[in-house]
Amino acid sequence: MKNQVQLITYVDRLTGGGLAALRELLRGPLRGLFGGVHLLPFFVPIDGADAGFDPIDHAAVDARLGTWEDVRSLTLDIDVMADLIVNHMSRDSAQFSDYLARAGASAHDGLFLTRERVFPNGVSPSDLQAIYRPRPGTPFTAITLGDGSVRFFWTTFTPHQIDIDVQHPTGSAYLRHILATFGANGIRMVRLDAVGYAIKKAGTSCFMLPETFDFIAALAAEARARGIEVLVEIHSYYRKQIEIARHVDRVYDFALPPLLLHAFEFGTGRYLADWIEIRPHNAITVLDTHDGIGIIDIGPDRAEPLARPGLVPATELDELVERIHHNTAGESRRATGAAASNLDLYQVNCTFYDAMSRNDLRYLLARAVQFFLPGVPQVYYVGLLAGSNDLTLLARSGVGRDINRHCYTEAEVESALARPVVRELCRLIRLRNEHPAFGGAFARLDSSETAVHLRWTAGLASAELQVDFASGAYTLAVSSPAGLEQFEFTLD
Length: 492
Prior knowledge:
single chain; alpha/beta; TIM Barrel; globular; 8-stranded parallel barrel; 19% strand
């Protein structure tokens, strides 16, 4: 994985077109900005019940976007990451349809996880209470098969997404087939989507078990054998994230976005500085993704909230959520929790730019901190364009996360790229990609209660950032052949 900023995007929502249009955008207005691109699900279909994360055919490119040949063409210009949706597939998939019709006679018998396979002696109320799930209710859906029998299938996320039995030979073969398809078409990075939920075991939380680590290790070995690097996507208590990072290639730093929001809202660098000291360095850093802003990632362990507190005081975490809602004039409240379908209990749905009250300087300073921390930075397409909440799309779909999934036209992209805040963000991205200091050694220097002070050095090359979250003052200085230069944002 290149040590350069990456783009996260839906193909059609950034370009208004397909893979060929995305390639032209990356070759044209966005030329040189990104070392890699994470293509959010481009499989059949891109517009299912969960915006592509419920594939009917995980090994086929949706024809509305192009073909595998178009994907291969894109990989000639830039490293491409794709999602390996580990935990589930669409209820409308050919495999599940065949199993519904033929039951035990189906070649796909064993591919889908049932309640009885995990709880052969029945599930008790305490078993149900122990299961960790990101959404309310039980994780089972009763479905009648063609022979008239009823099965209770695991549906961790929605009734449209049927969980795979990844420990069954047919489940393993299914995942290997997808990896082989990716490898043959130039994909060099995969994100293991929802992998924390993949292994279920009676009497446990069914989330990030010791057996899950074993499964991830085996799947990662399969990927590496095909020249594919692996990123693990887990939202969880921060100490669990640190533990997970010891066992995998890459993890997301999901604690960073809410910590930066907290730093600016409360005028303190204390908790961010504490996290910088202990956070994993094999991280993908983000401020925004296609999902919401994680809250669980800096909150207490839900199993032991008093014994295992979060990165910020619980009262301040609650206040932070309220401040985000205030900053957006209530827009984020309309898209979060019980106010919207397809909800996540641990996320606030909102663009990061709106969460920061559309304050251009604060937004750029947040990006600067992101880019200065060890790891590979990713920038979401809406964040790249400093996008605002899409209330029209939210109203049309009723899906909370759609507030941060705007569908841009070519004219909108052109207009956004001309805005000063976006222009300066692009300048900052180029600095992060090109300055040699970021290939060297990182240090967090002593700073005050309200500020952080970060430095990179590689030989004579250096890059240094100081941000005071209370006053908004900052210094960004980088070495050059002419000496030390101040990098200042111009927002006129």
